[in-house]
TrEMBL record:
This is Hydrolase CocE/NonD family protein. The keyword Transcription regulation does not apply. The lineage of its organism: Bacteria, Pseudomonadati, Acidobacteriota, Terriglobia, Terriglobales. InterPro entries: AB_hydrolase_fold, CocE/Ser_esterase, FrsA_esterase, Galactose-bd-like_sf, Xaa-Pro-like_dom, Xaa-Pro_dipept_C. SMART domains: PepX_C.
Length: 731
């Protein structure tokens, strides 16, 4: 089981299995001659298109007295009869559905996984003629142990095209270093997860990092860089950059018939590791692609966002990674909202799970501010040059590492003149949850994107990027940034991000009577504010309850950022500002920055700001009144002065809080409305702010949690607003 959705080839396979039946069945020999008894099997032959994702097609064919199933990303496997209309592979069941005349019209497939649960998908028959959809290339598998500078040996799985070891064109190495295990890496997984590159021919290497799975040494979460750049020998100074260097050095010297070029990629934690391989890099590393990379886990990735602690995620992920060398699933049987509310603070919750002595959990409690410990782990401040071509990839709806992609690009872009492709950074941002580009990605939750955005990204950008820099092939034509513009569902390309040509800055103002517009306020301070009472004993849930463990059974974690915010319509502890219905399509682009003028009756407060697209009440397709978030982010008030130390807020004093809600490229369609929602809890994704200042919220006593009145201002003197970019055509 993989809980962080995409981490290794196995995790990618499980992600794909969310919309493909299992590929784990047994393959049988062909039967070229049909028998009379086998002819009824013709009733099942044909192509079947998945109802929820028409890009996923199954081909069911007959050979002799056997049925076989395949798809473009699943090998051909025999189906064994279990009844008249029931067949199965080893771990997938197929139930065929007939119309009143007896003709087979569909098949229900049970066996793909989302998280830990089996899923059932319905496929509609589109033709009674089967096709060969699968074009897998066979890869042979070997395992190696690679020594690094301090004598530790790192384990890796090597997959190479059959027959390529001593003959044919030398091949580049395609490396993923991972903390999620490599035991499931095989020919089927590379063909399934990277079909275009697998067909092209690469030496795929999946390597366990230090201290994880089959590798020796001690694991350290997001191990910071400690070695001296250019020093290749000091055994006392090891980190993920030096381990990547030493691994690449061993691979190019020991894998037969490689062309001396290495590409490194990874999603999430492996995305962090991919960036490490591009820093003080080995000369053989010619391209890296950090995808949704963990970059700064305090400022905006896994564990904190602007000082607010991501409680459920920190609780689950720390246990998963630090209880043993292998994944330890966290799947509790109760509503995590109730669990964390019962224990009050994180220290108590960790003790109840016997997790308080795990290394990162101890740091959460001891160092909740942006201390030297967290700063040294951060990647983006160290990105002071572009050493190799970099392709950053991220999703607008990434529930885990939205920050990293944009932060790394922003750090690298000033060093890119675009005069030298060998020292350039590129970025692709699409309508995806964490790692969602591994699949078709035509939809996310209730949102439809009109095309297979994941397939489009991989074929147009990822494949051509690596083919260019590892094989000198043409086809990669991205100048700088590609984004998928949600709302109108179309790809855009820009010379830089945020775009400068064709757009101008604008301010979206909160206004009187809960209005929202691009017109600056003109009123005074007497009545131009909105109040709500935030009660820590009844915090606002971040998604509908019950809230399962992050990767637990039945969890709705993966698509939650695309969910309907209408479930909060009856809450009184927030305030909304809504525009008139759009009289024309209105596009906003760029880095959306919140400027919130607010006060609290307490001495500490959290501020959550969401920009929401509100669908009209007559929207078709079940989307009537739907409220989907475009951007959103939290700011912990105690860090109003500096992130390095907490400072009390003076009660009832107006302060301007400024923070990024991250990038967007979105069109509010005609008839839709814009909404800005402000609230002071987002639980239990983020721990509760007591709203009474305490030195350390991780250990806050129960009596510190008190209701407070929060006030948001929107006057001429205190103009709360969002910074956005508008197209020049909207001047």
């Amino acid at each position: 089981m993989r809980q962080r959705w995409i981490g290794t080839a196995v995790a990618l396979m499980l992600g794909v299995a969310a919309f493909l039946p299992s590929a784990m069945g047994g393959q049988a020999p062909h039967h070229p001659h049909a028998t009379a008894e086998s002819r009824p099997l013709d009733a099942f032959v044909g192509l079947y298109k998945e109802n929820s994702d028409p890009d996923v097609v199954l081909s069911i064919s007959r050979e002799g007295d056997s049925l076989f199933v395949e798809s473009a990303r699943m090998a051909r496997f025999q189906m064994h009869a279990e009844g008249k209309d029931h067949f199965a592979t080893t771990s997938t069941k197929y139930e065929f559905i007939r119309d009143p005349s007896g003709a087979v019209t569909a098949v229900s497939v049970t066996g793909g996984r989302r998280g830990t649960e089996l899923t059932t998908e319905l496929y509609t028959r589109t033709t009674n003629v089967a096709e060969t959809l699968n074009h897998f290339r066979n890869y042979t598998r070997t395992e190696v142990m690679m020594p690094v500078r301090d004598g530790v040996r790192l384990h890796a799985v090597v997959l190479r095209p059959e027959g390529s070891e001593h003959s044919g064109e030398p091949l580049p190495i395609f490396l993923q270093r991972t903390c999620y295990g490599t035991e499931g890496s095989n020919s089927a997984t590379v063909n399934m997860t990277k079909p275009e590159l697998a067909q092209s021919g690469y030496i795929f290497v999946f390597a366990d990092i230090r201290g994880r799975y089959e590798s020796e040494g001690q694991f350290v979460m997001n191990r910071p860089i400690v070695h001296v750049y250019g020093n290749r020998t000091d055994p006392k100074l090891v980190d993920e950059s030096s381990d990547a260097y030493d691994s690449v050095d061993w691979l190019v010297k020991n894998l037969p018939n490689n062309n001396g070029r290495v590409g490194v990629w990874g999603v999430s934690y492996p995305g962090f590791l991919a960036m490490m391989a591009g820093m003080d890099h080995h000369p053989a590393v010619k391209a890296v692609s950090p995808q949704a990379p963990m970059t700064d886990v305090w400022m905006g990735d896994d564990f904190f966002h602007n000082g607010a602690f991501r409680e459920t995620y920190g609780f689950d992920y720390t246990q998963r990674m630090e209880r043993s060398k292998r994944d330890v699933p966290v799947s509790m049987d109760e509503d995590m909202y109730a669990y964390f509310l019962r224990y009050g603070n994180f220290e108590n919750a960790a003790k109840a799970a016997d997790a308080q002595n795990l290394p990162t959990a101890k740091r959460f409690v001891a160092e909740p501010a942006y201390t030297k410990f967290w700063q040294e782990m951060a990647v983006q401040p160290k990105l002071t040059s572009i050493e190799v071509p970099v392709l950053e990839v991220g999703g607008w709806f990434d529930q885990e590492d939205m920050f990293g992609t944009q932060a790394e690009y922003a750090a690298l872009r000033p060093h890119d003149t675009k005069k030298d492709p060998e020292h350039s950074v590129y970025m692709v941002l699409g309508p995806w949850s964490h790692g969602g580009w591994a699949g078709s990605a035509r939809r996310l939750g209730a949102l439809e994107f009109g095309s297979a955005t994941g397939e489009e990204y991989r074929k147009r950008y990822e494949v051509t990027f690596f083919e260019k820099f590892l094989k000198d092939r043409t086809g990669f034509d991205l100048k700088d940034t590609a984004t998928f513009r949600t709302g109108v569902n179309q790809w855009e390309r820009y010379d830089v991000w945020p775009p400068k040509v064709g757009f101008h800055p604008a301010k979206l103002y909160l206004g009187v009577r809960h209005s929202l517009s691009f017109d600056a306020p003109t009123g005074g301070d007497v009545r131009d504010h909105a109040n709500y009472v935030a009660d820590p004993s009844n915090p606002i849930p971040y998604r509908e309850r019950p809230i399962q463990s992050t990767y637990g059974s039945g969890s709705k974690w993966r698509p939650w950022l695309s969910g309907d915010q209408g479930f909060l319509k009856d809450r009184k502890d927030l305030t909304n500002f809504t525009s008139d219905a759009m009289d024309k399509d209105t596009t906003i682009t760029g880095d959306i920055v919140a400027h919130l003028f607010a006060s609290t009756s307490g001495s500490d407060a959290d501020w959550v700001v969401k920009l929401i697209d509100v669908y009209p009440d007559d929207a078709p397709g079940g989307m009537a009144g739907y409220q989907t978030m475009v951007v959103e982010e939290i700011f912990r008030g105690r860090y109003w002065k500096t992130f390095e130390a907490a400072t009390p807020i003076e009660p009832n004093k107006v302060k301007e809080y400024t923070w990024s809600l991250h990038g967007a490229d979105h069109t509010f369609l005609k008839g839709h409305r814009m909404m800005v929602q402000v609230q002071s809890s987002w639980f239990p994704l983020y721990d509760r702010n007591p709203q009474t200042f305490v030195p350390n919220i991780m250990t806050a006593p129960m009596d510190a949690y008190t209701p407070q009145t929060q006030t948001v201002y929107f006057s001429k003197k205190h103009p709360s607003h969002l910074d956005v970019l508008l197209p020049d055509t909207e001047k």
